[in-house]
Every structure is written in C-alpha cells, then in structure tokens.
Description:
- The structure holds three protein chains of three kinds.
- By secondary structure, chain B is an alpha/beta fold.
- In chain B, about 45% of the residues lie in helices and about 10% in strands.
- In chain B, strands 2-1-3-11-4 form a five-stranded mixed β-sheet.
- In chain B, α17 packs antiparallel against α18 (about 405-420).
- Chain C starts with 5 loop residues before the first helix and ends with a helix.
- Chains in contact: A-B, A-C, B-C.
Amino acid sequence: MATTLAPPPRHVSPPQTARRRIRRLSRRRPGKLTYLMLTAIAFFSFFPLYWSVVVASQDNSALGKIPPPVLLGGNLWFNLKRAFTMVPFEKALINSFLVAGAITLSVVLFSTLAGFAFAKLRFRGRNILLLSIIGTMMVPTTLGIIPLYMLMAKIQWTGTIYAVIVPAMVNGFGVFFMTQYLSEAVPTELLEAGRVDGCSTIRLFWHVVLPAARPAAAVLGMLTFLTAWNDFFWPLVVLTPEDPTVQVVLSTLSAGRITDYSLALTGALIAILPLLVVFVVLGKQIIGGIMQGAVKG
Amino acid sequence: MRRFTAVVPIAIAAMLATAACGSDDGDNQAADDGPVSLTVATFGEFGYKELYEEYMKLHPNVKITERITKTEDHHKNLAAHLATNTGAADIEALEEGWIGQFTAQPSKFVDLTEYGANDIKAQWPEWKWNVGSSKDGKVIGLGTDAGGMAMCYRTDLFQKAGLPTDRAEVSKLWPTWEQYIETGKKFEAAKVPGAHFFDGPTVMYRSILGQAPVGLYDGDNVVVDSNPDVKKAFDLSAQAVTSGLSARAEAWTPAWNAGFAKGTFATLACPSWMMAYIQTQAKDASGKWDIADVPGGGGNWGGSWLTVPKQGKHTKAAYELAKWLTAPEQEVKVFQKYGNFPSTVTLYDDPAIKDFVNPYFNNAPVGQIFSKSVTTMKPQYLGPKAGDINTQIINGLTRIEQGKQTPDQSWAQVLTDVKALL
Amino acid sequence: MTQLATEERVGPRRGLLHRLDVKGSPYLYIAPFFILFLGFGVFPLIFTAWVSLHEWSLLSEEHTWIGFGNYTKLFDDPAFWNALWNTVSIWVISTVPQLLLALVLAHILNQRLRGQTFWRMSALIPNITSVAAVAIIFSQLFGRDYGLFNWVLGLFGVDKIDWTANTWSSHVAVSTMIIWRWTGYNALIYLAAMQAVPKELYDSASLDGASSFQQLRKITVPAIRPTIIFTVIISTIGGMQVLAEPLLFGGNGLTGGSDRQFQTLALYLYEVAFGRFDFGYASASSWVMFLIIVVVAAINFGITSRLRRS
C-alpha cells in the first residue's frame, strides 16, 4: 500500500530571474491546432445532445426518416408542455436537487476528511482500512437493492428521499480519490511545520488541507452530483411516482408500449439543464496553483 | 467509535432476523364503506385516467392514485416489492411477456376466484383466462387488452412483384405458413429493388408457435426437444431466412423503424398495437400499407392483465376496481379513446369494434380482423420460463440470419442453451 | 513514510488533549464512512451471501437450502464464463485507449485556454446525455446497411461489417461507446490532479525547449502518479461491472447478442436476477464476480505499482 502514499516529488525551483522570464513565455496561449482539436472533441461530445434537442423539437415520426433529421423542428414548446403536464416535473426537480446536493456536500466533506487521514496521518490499521474501503467499491450493487429495500421498509424510509440520500452519503470512490490527490498535493513539510506551531489536526485540515483540496473537491463534487442525479436503479425501486426524482419521472415519460422519443428526450433535456448550471459553478473552481504561493513562494 | 460499532451490528442482526419473516399481515378486509385509498401501477397507455375519475365519482370513499413506469422497470420493481412483501401497488398490471413467471408463483397474489372472479369468466376467450391463471386453477389476473395477430403488407411492393393487392385475395395467398413462404419466394423472384419479403423471423416464429395446441411446456415439462410443433415453428422460420426472404431488420432497431417508410420489407406479422407504430413511423406512407389475415389462423402478441398482490391493505376493494376496469363497458371506452384492442370477447359484436376500420390501412376492417384472430386463438399453456426459452430460440434464428450458423447447428445450440436454463 | 510522525517531534509533554488529537482524530475522520457502511452496506452483503446458499426465486415464498449448489452450478455454466471473457476483452479494448486519451485531453485542458469552463464542461457532456439518445445514435453509427462507420470503411473498399453479429466487432462497438462516454470523466480527474503540479516545473521545462508532449511524459505523469493509479483501479472496477453500454448496444436485450457475444458479467447477473428473477443464483454469481474483481484489481495494482518503480 505504501506505493499509493508516495512522497511528493521534491521540486527544484528555477532561479528567480529565469522564472520571471518564463512567466511571460508560458503566458503564450495555446495555438490554433489545440483549438481545432478541442472543437472536434466538443463536436463529438455535443452531437448526441444536440440531436436529442432535434428529436425533442419534432414529433415521434422523425425517427423513422432516412436520413434522420438534423435540424430543429417546431414542436419543442408543445413537448415541454406535455412533459410538464404528464408528470410532476417541478417536484421531481426539487427532489433531485435536494438529493444530489445533499449527497455531494456530504461526499466531498467526508471524503476530504478521510482522504486527509489516510494520506497524511499515521494511525494503526491505516492500510487495511483503506484497502477495505477500496474493496467496498468492488461489490456488484445490482442485487443489493433487495436487502436494502427490506432495511428501508423496516425503518419506514421507503418512498422518502432519505432512502436515496443516506446510503449514498459516503463512498469508496471519493475517499480513495481524495487520498490519492492529497498525498500528492499537500506537502508533508507544511503540515509538520503547522504541528510544531501547535496546530490541532482539525486546524491543519481547515487551513492547509481544505484550500489545497479545492480543485479535487470541485471535480469530485461535479462527478458526485452527476452520479447522484443520474442514478435511477435504486430510486425507481424505493421511490414512487407520486414523490419522485427526475429519473423516476423520466421512466414514466418513456412508458408507452411505443416509446414516444420526442417526449422522452424532451424530459431528458429538462433533466440535464440543472446539471449544466452545477457544472459551470463547480467548473470555475478547478483552479490550480493555490499551494504554490503558500509553499514555494 | 466503540459505541457505534457495538450498536450497529445488533441493529443489523435484528433486521436479519426479522427481514426473512415477511411483513405482518394487516387487516385485509377493511370495511368497504370506509375511506379506501388504492394505487394502480401500470406501464404505458392503459388509458385509464378518465376511468379513475369516473370510478371515484361512483365511489366517493375511494381514492385512486396511478403509477406509470416503463415496462421493464415496472416488472423489475414489482418483483422487488413482492420479494420484500412491501411497496407493491394495490393493483399491479402484468404484461404477456412476464406473466408466466408470476403465475408460476401465485402465492404472492390474491386468488381472484375467492372474490367471485369465476362469475365473469365468460368475458374473455379461454386462452386469455388461462394465461392469467396458475396451473392449479388460481386466477391472479383479469385480462385488459389483447394484441391479436394479422399480416400487414405493402400494396405498392406487392404490385411491383406482380402479386395481388386486394386484402381478400392476399389472405387467400397464405392459408398456411408454407404457402406464405412460397409467396415470399415469388416475391423475391420478381427482384423488387431494395425490398425483401419480410422483416425478420422473430414475429413469424412466435406466431407459428402460438397456433399450436401445445407449445414449449407440456404440463410441468419443457418439451422443446420433443414437441414437433416447436421444431416446426423453428424450421419454417429458418427456411424463410435461408430462402433469402428476410430484410434482416431486427425489431425495434433504427433500420427496422426506417423500413416502414422506406419499404425495405413487404410484409410484417402485426398485432393490433403495431398499427399505431406503423402510423407514426411511416406517416407519409398512408394507403401503402394494408392488413390481411395471418397465415395459420388465430394468434396473439401482447396484452395485459390486472392483478391484486396479497400485501395490499384493501384487496377486496382492489378486486372490485379491477373488475370494473376490465368490464366490457369500460374496455370499449378505452378502445374508442386510446385504441387498445380489448380482450373482452363479449364486446366483439359491439358496433364500436365490428365496424371499426382504419383509414391509414386503406380502410381495412381491422376490428373484425383482430377479433377473428383473438377468438380463434387456441389456449396454450405458456409455462414459467417461456420468455427465456423463446429468447434462446429467437437468438438461434438470429444466428442463422447473421450467417453464423446453419439451421442444424443453431438448433443443436438452442437445445443446449434451453437445457442450461432449467 | 511521509505521514506526520508527530510524536517524535513534539514529545509527550504536550498534554493529554494533544495526544488524543494525534492518536484519535484520524479515526474520527474516517468514522463517517464506516458508520454508514455498517448501517447500509453490510446487511446487503450478508443477506446476498445467505441467499446464495438457497434456491430462491424473487417471486416465491419458499426458499430451499442447497448449500453450495448455486456455486457448483456456476462453475459449469458456460454462459457465466463466456460473460467473464467478454468482460475482460471489452475492458482491455476500452480502458487502455480511454485512459491514454483522457491523459492527453486533461493535458490540453490544463493549458491557459480561452473559454476554459466551456471546454472543461464539454468533457462531461457525453456522461449526461440521455442514454436513449446515445443508444439510438450508436446503433445508427454501427448500422449494417446505412451506418456511418460502414460507409466510411466502404470508401476504403472494406466490406460491410455486421457489427452486432460478430464477437470482435461487437466488442469494438461496445468499447467505442464506453470510450466515448467515460474519457472526459477520467480527464477531469486527471485535470484536478494536475492542478497540484507546480507551474514552475513546466516553465523551466519549456525554457529548456521541451515539447508539450515531453512535458506531459516527464513532468505531469510522474507528478500525478497516485491519481493515475487511482484511475487504473477505478476503471478496473468499473470495467468489470460494465452494464449500460452492452445493454444499450443490444437494444435492451438481456442476452447481449444472438450468441451472447457481448454479454458482460454484470449483464448476465442482471439477466439472471431481473429477467429470470432467480435471486439465489444471481447472488452466487454476484459473490463470485466480487471475488474476480478483487483478484483482477489486485493484479492490476501490482502491475501498476511495479511500473512505477521501474
């Protein structure tokens, strides 16, 4: 296990004068080729999403056409209205926001705490505990829903969003991710210095670890929010369409024997708009170089 | 830390001990006149929304909540809720493809004969009633809609191939499936550009098998290897494929969807609900599709039942609602508004169905065509694993179609695959 | 070991409170995970282990004890082993390119770009696109008669490929879907790790005339090694549990093709549990699958850490 907790590479800072010169040099923005590549990647990433908008703006016959339509039709507003009248979308959006928000806050906080402990603190049984956390990720979750449902029925949480939130408040992914990130990002010397000054562990966490964890916390937050938002397997079993999350109402929208794709994909579009907002907010948090000033400067 | 670790395992042990014992049986026989809240879980367009309103007006003490989910999700959830004895709706719908597994394990459902279901038995054809019952005669489901079976065909492609286009004459081309294949060979010989005779073997196989008195099961035994009718259904479908009649458009794929408008296949065995599908997929092909009889007489694909899980609080009230929803007066309303073809045979003389024609299909008298296929369909016991076994056999036909195996190789593998299921 | 060896430095005189902080706080920090896992994770594990020793249908009241019967049946079940090989094959074809691409993409995204947030966000777009739309688009792309890929191959004189029919081609198609959906996800993980690499290192390297690619290899990769190990382990675990992509590619069919040619372990498990409702057998498969994942992840970890040393 020692290998995952490798010491940070000891960096040699370039001499002061040279550094100032390169600052200017590295400010040079990436060339046209980079943007060309990024545009190509973005095209491939966005195309299915764009195409969902196309289908959502048509009626269901659009899918039977050869070649399939690639331009927007005029039915989007009509489909949106249909989606909102057929299912309690407002309620579902609020529920999903509560669920994904609570899970994200909790996962990021607990993962950073645990990651800090595993990466930087010494305690008995550390390696075996970390390994067991990683091990929990390897359990296939498909079957777990039956016993978990029994459990929820016992504590009378079925049909409530607690049943979706609480079991997801921590996960091995987050802890392992933060452990690996923090073992690299927080210089041990800095923590030792803090200790010598008499800082308690929680103060070290607050003043040193948490700021350094920002880029990783932002990414972990995005990925956790996304996973929680998109989770349908468990919510479909434990929640009811009367008090649903977004994924539950999406199942209702595509319920017909003949799937009405224009309706189903309209629903899917409504469902991802809040995700985009979260991405923009968190995406701005991925900023590096916070530690550089504190440690090296 | 120590305190937590001590408490949690005890809680878990307690749950382990109680979870296996199932839930307490509450008072199932709540008074009928007290306030009753019923949940009905369906998957798709049962067309019951207005009926719920009507029922609540008739019975002011009853409050109905509807739950609609995707078909796969619905059955998966139901299995989970039955297994844990909690969470199921008061009325749960079941689809034809799934019901065999549930009738094989009827203990989680109310035997509706206890509430007098036998009195209304005459509403349905015998096969529909049987499929909703367990082998020992427990009735768990009341039939809602049925698929029936007909043969949809393209008049324009038939004309190009020099075949008759009038639906009476077309029906005469194929009283049997052998003659259907012969017609197909004639069609292929005419080399209509870009078109083949039929879409693929899946529906053909299911239709032929459905017309046999004994299918995959004979009583408790799976007779795939010994029942000549199963082999016949397989062989005929395989023969149609090896004769080059197939457009190789697998059902529900984009190529298949596009095929309706494009005319890549000239015939398609079609249950009643397929009409709406063709109409949406090929909006502009109105008048090009027509409907004739299916070879071999009767048939059915699809349709559902309403069941009452035992775990419900008001099983009697739930039965009353299910009985009301499946009664002829209600089913005819659903048919008129949503087009779901009723399985209620007593309705088939009703002008709403007898005189029903579909303008998209050249005014074909589809009410009569589908009634005929539903009423002439013989009862056949499906068996608990019918769905899985059919998947194996259809996979076998697909392997032939994909050129991976000869019919003999494929059948040999089907037999081992089916054996592995049991 | 780089963990804080506080005791030696500070000495025992700091008082009880300090000792308690140093000795006890790590446990406090990791406690939430274990409390919740004990509350909601352990019971399902024990329960499925118990179920796996029974003949246990989801729809039945009776559960017959059969000891290890499900397990012995599993070892003779060709469909299970077939699913295992498919899983490994798809995992290899998808994971290696996926992680390499993600690394390169993260490197590009780590530059000072105009519209940075936009580019970073677009990395996650495939992951949030409705699976229904993804399924339709990919079956269009891999269509036999009108598919885009066959059309392009046709320009080079390659015969039409029936993508779903063959083992290798279906694995390639499923892997393509996986790569498309998950590359950006991994790229963001790398991108986060790259934020902790001091910018000065790149500055001095470009002063020495190192190309962008050399910087990636010589500076970035060594510096974010723990995160690379993380993604390798995670993709191993994720890859062994691939379910959505083969399910979508097969048009929601549970057998993964006419000859189970692209049925993965997770899909097989799903078929047994929710197609046949055979909870006992599914539980046994689930446990064997868990053990296989542990072994594969351990091997992978061994290889990755050895690479590190060399």
